[in-house]
Amino acid sequence: KTTLRYANFFPPTHIQSQLAESWCKEVEKRTNGDVVIQYFPASTLTKAPQTYDGVVQGITDIGMTALGYSRGRFPVAEAIDLPMGYTSGVQATAVANAMYEKFKPEEFNESHILFFHAHGPGLIHTRDKGINTLEDLKGLKIRSTGTSGLVMDALGASPVGKSMRECYQMLQKGVVDGSCHPIESNKGWKLGEVVHYMIQNFSTAYTTTFGVFMNKNQWDKLTPEQQSAITQISLEWAVKHGEAWDESDKAGMAFFKEKGGVVIPQSEEESEKWRGAARPVLDNYIKKVSEKGVDGKAVVDFIKSNM
Amino acid sequence: MSPVLAGIIGIAVMIIMFMTQMPVAFVMALVGFIGFSTMTSPDAGLVLLSRNIYETFASYDLTTIPLFILMGQLGFNSGISKRLYSAGYKFLGSVRGGLAMATVTACTAFGAVCGSSPATAATMATVGLPEMKRFNYDDALATGSVASGGGIGMIMPPSVVLIIYGILTEQSIGQLFVAGIFPALLVTMLFISAVYITCLLDKNAGPAGEKFSWAERFKALFGLGETLIIFALVVGGIFYGLFTPTEAASVGAFGVLVISVIQRRLTWKGFVKSLMETLTTSCMVLMLITGAVIFGKFLAVTRIPFEIASWVSGLNMAPAMVIAVIIFIYFLGGCFMDALAFVTLTVPIFFPVVMELGYDPIWFGIIIVMVTEMGVITPPVGINVYVVYGVAKNVLSHNVPLEKIFKGITPFLIALIIGIIILIAFPCIILFLPHLMYS
Amino acid sequence: MKLLDRILNLVSDLLRSAGALALTLMMLITVADVAGRFFKHPIFGSVELVGFFAVAVAAAALPHTYKVGGHVGVEIITRLLPRKIRLLLDLFTRTLTLILFSVVAWQMFVYAKDMQQAGEVSMNLEFPLHYIVLVLAVSLAFFSGTILQQIVDTVNQLRKGTTG
Ligand code: NA
Ligand code: NA
User: How does strand A178-182 pair with strand A141-143?
Assistant: First the structure.
C-alpha cells in the first residue's frame, strides 16, 4: 500500500480543490485501495509559489499550482498564458494539454506531469468607469500580475502588480481603478462586490495555466497498472477541470450581474484594435525565449492554430 | 509510529526543550524539522527548512512587521510617544490603571490600520512599555495589556484572519469586516474592565497619580497633535483609497519621520538607533513566525488537526454543545499551533457542520477570530507573548520574566472568554451592522 | 582566533548597516509607489522590491540579534539552576542551534543553485530570484559563525568558572 501527499493552494470550498479531492478518491478506488492520497488544500503543506519545487524535492508527492508562480522556469509553457484571445476554460485547458503533448518541453523533466488545466478568459473589470475604447483605458491603474501585467502595459493601462489576496481591499477603496481577472473571480474572490464594469476584451484575454505534478521517484515506484490507472483518471479529470472553470465563470457572471454589474461588449473593429495593441506581448515573448534556445514562434503558432 | 503519536511526542519534546532556554523560535523550527523528516524523509525535511525561512522572510504580507516596528521606534526615539502618554496621563492618570486602559484603546485604534496581531503587539509594546514603567505600572499589567491588546487588531478591520475565513467559506469579506467592528469595541470595553478589576485587586498594579486641572489637561492636548496628524493621515489614506493597509505601515513610518525631522526632535543618531532596534525586533518576530510555521507544517503532516475536526463533525450532540466543543478545540489548537494555520486547516471541516446546525456564517467567522485571539496569547505557542517579552527586554532596562507576562495575560483571557459567551448569547452584536448595511 | 573574532564582528556590523539601508529603502519605495500611483505612475515592481529588501532586513539582522540575545527563550527553569549547569545547558543548546543553522545555511546555498539552474525570476520585474536566496544563504553562513563565536565564549566562561 502506498500513501501519497497531495498539496494544493486552492481553498477546499473551491471547485478546483473539490475536483482535486475527487481525483484522489478516484485513484484510491481504481487502484483497489492500494494507492491512498492524503490531501492538503489551502496551502497547508506548500504555498503556491513553492509547490512545484516542493514536488520535485519531495516535500509533497503531488502538487497543483499555477505555472506563472515559477516565472522563468517554464519558458515553453509560459506561452499558454499569453493573450491569445481565449474564450473558455475548456478551450484553454485543451490547448494547454495539446501543447504539452506536442512539445514535451524539457523544462518539465524533473517531475512527472499528470495533466494541465487553465481558467477561462481573463478580462478587465473596472470600478467607476466603463471602458469602451482603448483610449478609455489609458493611464488607468489596473491590478494585474505576470502576463496580464504585460498585456495591461501594452494596452496603455498602468499595471499595479499586487496579488489576488490584496485585490478586494484595493478595489473596495479605489487604490486601483480596476483589475484583470477571470470572470470566475467575481464570485470566488468576491470581486463582483467591488467592480461594476466588465469589458469583453476577449481578443486580448489571457489565461493562467495550472499543472498537476508528481514526484518522479514516487511515480517510478508505482506499478505499471497503477500508473496507467492514474494516467487514465488524469485524462478524464483534465476535461472536468476545464468544464468546471466554465461553470465557475457562469456563476461568477451571475454574481457580477446580481450585484448590479454592467457588461460592456466590444465591436469587431475595436477588438481588432486591441488585438493589434497587445501583439508586442507575443513578439517580446518570442524574442525573449529565443535567447534560451526555444523556438517561441513555433509554440505560439501551434497554440493559435489549436484555438 | 502512528502519526498522531508522533504529533503528541513532538509537542511534548517541544515543551521540554523550551525549558532549556533555547530560543523558542529555534526549538519550534528544530522539532518541526525533525518531526517532518520522520513523517516524510530527511531530504524533504531539509528542503522544508530552507524554503520556509525564505518564504516567511520574503512574504509581502509580513513586510508590515518591520515597518510598523520602525514607526513605533521612530515615535519612541523622537519623544512623540512620550508626549502622547503624558497627555493620556493628565486625563487618566488619576484613575487606577488609567494608562493601561488608554493603551488597550490605542491598540484598537491601531488595529484599524494594521491587520497583523504580532505587528500591533510589537509596535504598541515599543511605545507603551517604557511609558507605563515611567508611571510605575506593574510589569504584569503593562505587558499583559499590550500582548492582549495586540490581538484586537485581528477583530478590528482590516483583518488577515477574516480575509482568509471569507475566502475559505465563500463569505463576503465586506460583511465580515463590518461585523467585526462592534465585537472589537466590546472586547476593548471588556479589556478596560479587566484592567479596572486587576487594579482593584492589586493596588500596586496601576497606581493612581495626582489629578490635573482642566487647564493643564487642555494644554497637554497639544502634545497629541503629531499623533493625531499621523493617525488621520494613515486612516484617511486607507479610507480614501490612497493606499492599502499593507502600504499604510510605510506611509505611517515615513509620516513620523518627516514630522519629527520638521520638529527637530529626531537626531541622526536617533534615526540610526531606530533602524537598528527595528532590525533586531523584526528579526526576532520573523524568526518566531518562521518557527511556528515549520512546526505547523509538521502538525499538518501528522493530520492531527484533520482527525480532530472530522471527529467533531461526527458528534451527535445538541447544537450549543457542538459549538462549545469546537471553541474548546480552537482554544487547544491555538495553544500549540500558529492560530492562523490552525484556522486554515480546520475551518473547511467545521464550517459545514456549523451551517448544518443553523448558525450564521458571518457570526461563526467572528467567533473564530475571537478564539484565534486567545491563541496568540496562550502558552506554549503564544506569538504575542513572546513578541512582547522580546520587546520588553529591548526597551526596558530590566528583564520581565515570562511567567509575569502570562500572569498579566490571565485577566484578559478571562475577558475574552466572557466576550465569546456574550457573542454567543447575543449574536445581534455581530450581525446588527452587516444586516443594516447589506440588506 | 582573535582575528576571526574581529572579522566576524566587522561583518556583523556591516550586515546591520546594509539591513538598515534596506529597511529605509523598503519604506521609501512604498511611499514613492503610493505617491506615483496618485499621479498615475505607480512603480510596477514595488511589491517585489519591497519583498527583496524585506529578506535583506531580516537576514542581515540574524548575527547581531543572536549575539545580543534578542531571541526569546523561556528562563522559568534555568533561572533556578546554578551558574555552571546553566552554562553547560547553554553550551548544549548553542551547539544544537549551530548544527541547525549550519544545515540551513548549506541548504540555502543548494536552494540558490537550484533556483539559478531552473532560471526562476520574479513575477513582474523578472529579476533572478537566486540572488535573493544567495543573500539569505550568505547571511546564514555568517550567522553560523556568530553562533560558533558564542559557543567559544561559553566554553571560556566555563573554564574560568572552574579554575577561578
Ligand atoms: Na485590524
Ligand atoms: Na497559543
Answer: parallel
Give residue B119 CA to ligand 2 midpoint distance, Å.
Answer: 16
Neighbours of A243 (CB within 10 A): 17
Q: Residue B376 in contact with residue B384, Cβ under 8 Å?
A: yes
Residue identified by cell 448590479 is A260
How distant is the alpha carbon of residue A225 from its chain centre?
A: 31
Cα separation values, B297 from B29, B353, C131, Å: 10, 25, 26
Contact C100 B18 (CB under 8 A): no
H runs (alpha helix) in A190-292 = 216-221, 224-258, 268-290
Q: Which three cell numbers stand for residue B169?
A: 467559506
d(CA A183, CA A19): 19
The model's pTM is: 0.89
Tell me whether residues C47 and A162 touch, CB distance under 8 A.
yes
Helices (H) and strands (E) counted in chain A, each on its own, are 11, 11
Of C29, C65, C75, nearest to B401 by CB-CB distance is C75
B382 DSSP 8-state letter: -
Distance CA B291, CA B298 (A): 11
Per DSSP (E only), the strands in chain A are: 2-8, 35-40, 62-66, 111-118, 122-126, 141-143, 158-160, 178-182, 197-199, 209-215, 262-264
Model confidence over B214-269: pLDDT tens digits? 888 888 887 777 888 888 888 888 778 888 877 888 999 999 999 999 988 899 99
Parse chain C into domains and list their residue ranges.
2-163
The number of the ligand nearest the C-alpha atom of B238 reads 1
Q: What is the ipTM of this complex?
A: 0.91
Residues forming a β-bridge with A66: A210
